[in-house]
Amino acid sequence: MDKRERIIQAAIDVFSDKGIEKATISEIVKKAGIAQGTFYLYFNSKLAVMPDIAELMVRKILEGLTSEVKDGPIDQQIGDIIHVIFKITNEYKVLTKLIYTGLTQTQYVGSWEEIYAPLYNWVENLLQRGKEAQAINSDVNTKFTAKIIIGSVESVAEQVYLYDHLDEDSIIRYKNELHKFVANAIGAYR
Amino acid sequence: MDKRERIIQAAIDVFSDKGIEKATISEIVKKAGIAQGTFYLYFNSKLAVMPDIAELMVRKILEGLTSEVKDGPIDQQIGDIIHVIFKITNEYKVLTKLIYTGLTQTQYVGSWEEIYAPLYNWVENLLQRGKEAQAINSDVNTKFTAKIIIGSVESVAEQVYLYDHLDEDSIIRYKNELHKFVANAIGAYR
Amino acid sequence: MDKRERIIQAAIDVFSDKGIEKATISEIVKKAGIAQGTFYLYFNSKLAVMPDIAELMVRKILEGLTSEVKDGPIDQQIGDIIHVIFKITNEYKVLTKLIYTGLTQTQYVGSWEEIYAPLYNWVENLLQRGKEAQAINSDVNTKFTAKIIIGSVESVAEQVYLYDHLDEDSIIRYKNELHKFVANAIGAYR
Amino acid sequence: MDKRERIIQAAIDVFSDKGIEKATISEIVKKAGIAQGTFYLYFNSKLAVMPDIAELMVRKILEGLTSEVKDGPIDQQIGDIIHVIFKITNEYKVLTKLIYTGLTQTQYVGSWEEIYAPLYNWVENLLQRGKEAQAINSDVNTKFTAKIIIGSVESVAEQVYLYDHLDEDSIIRYKNELHKFVANAIGAYR
DNA sequence: AATGAATGAGGTTTCATTCAT
DNA sequence: CATGAATGAAACCTCATTCAT
């Protein structure tokens, strides 16, 4: 693995473990197995790694969506989307949250839209096709709704895994309720 | 105003301005007009102020909900809720986001549920009454749905104000779409 | 117990526990159950308590000597002296050492001679009587030898209790060797 | 001279001058001519330098013993030992005392035995040879007695130089008395 | 005589950043 | 490109000391 990649991976580990505040470049380089000075050949600060981390996360989610959201009724596809986002959130725990904040705290806020665009687009396309197939309400604004859905699902996933620490059973019931909520919201049940 | 209160206010200012990372105790005490050592009589670290800030935010939102969500059809009440949360989010900008992260990064994660409980309860009660009046779907789990709604609305508000920096007109259209989304989700339109 | 006495006792506890370096007035007053400011009505600094502590220690040793060193052959009296000093050293552990250092580090070094004088005198008198009774070498300088004996015994006691942490059995053998050493040194066996 | 060595030398100076209590890392680094942060690359606290200082002291004493204690009657060798320890104690004044205390006050107490071992061994060997040559009492426990002798001599040296501040003439008489004391103690005069 | 909240000087400690190798 | 010892600015944090009550 090349140096840059190793830095990003190490940064993910350290940020997840210590949070942005307590994470130090010293620890990142130690974990990456490179010299202190080498870090600066690739990044200017620990927060400068964030966009790369965000990109990696979005890529993971997209890969998940592409592979796990099957063709079929949109109702079922929503279930798949929820499942994927929950899985990734659980896997990377606090990281999802940190990315938001990490980007916010820097000059990289602007990158946000850019980085998440593919994800929003993917869901928007799915809604668009659903709309054309008259599988959801005709008055749904696909652009806005894509973001609302992703925001809702991520928000609940964070609740469930980061704050409430629910047991597996409760999580399933939560996901079902959320599924019903979103499906109704876009009229996927008619 | 007593010392503790002044620290909290100063911390809000500094966190909002600099973010958690760059905020320093030195600056907080300067803004609060107290001595360096005095800070430590009340808090152990800058992050230890977070639970108090969160509590203040929740109190603000609750006050907003109590005063601005009128009696009337539940559909309209949802509009009011969205309006209140958007207003507070805009007012405190990054702070909402920082609280999440600030609590996550510390030993105070546990406080989260406790602090937000009143807010969740308030919405849950509203849903409960709507259910009893058969104004919303009978199969709605009020506890889960309360959290889903608050999460969704906050998530969209943050999108709108923190990342997308939308113009006023787009925000209104976004709010309308969100309103429709939530109302449909719980079956408030039948 | 009056305030002054309580401060001295608390200081003994804290110094024993934390050492001079880490001991703080804050902790002493907490242990003494008095207010922060009250300390200064009795002492100017934590080290200013040292002479009082030293006096208390010397008093303890003197009481021990007076009560436990019986009339009889000087050889046996030496054994008693060793026993008393070992007992007190064990009881107050590091404190003996700290007193030396505590006094050294301050303006109170001068007090040292004054405070220890009674102890030296007591042993000197014992040697003097031994000399007159021709129970020890006639060329012993009682003044110097008194100090040498006390120094040796304290030194060994500290070795045994503070550094080597010997078991009870080894300590007894050590004491016996020391006893023989001192008795021979002053010619108490002829 | 390498950084570590410079820190140790500077620490010796500052400790000797100010005592443990008043010595600061800031002053040590200033005297060593290095940056504040550099200190922490080698030691964690000012007391962490103590074991190194102790080692240096022991080395000095050993060098003194090796070079100044001549072959010859054991009686005379004892005189040499006393002379060396007095000289070093005078040269380093308070430092000898501080080492004891410095080590006591920290996690490094354990190091004590280890550091002093060579010194004890050296004297023990000398006694052993004296015993084999029947120059001293046959019932002397060389291990214990080595420690007793070193302890006694150091104790008296500290008395003389640190507390009593005796004049040169009195010191010579004190040394003579001590010499006689130790020689008699082990039966070196027969 | 006693209190204890508040102070702020002055220490400690960290860690991003540099630069000679 | 890569290194990592050294730096020192800038934060942290403690705690003796004060003083109004």
From TrEMBL, chains A, B, C, D:
It comes from Sporosarcina highlanderae. The keyword DNA-binding applies. The keyword DNA-binding applies. Keywords: DNA-binding. InterPro entries: DNA-bd_HTH_TetR-type_CS, Homeodomain-like_sf, HTH-type_Tx_Regulator, HTH_TetR, Tet_transcr_reg_TetR-rel_C_sf, YvdT_C. It comes from the Bacteria. Residues 24-43 bind DNA. This is TetR family transcriptional regulator. Residues 1-61 form the HTH tetR-type domain.
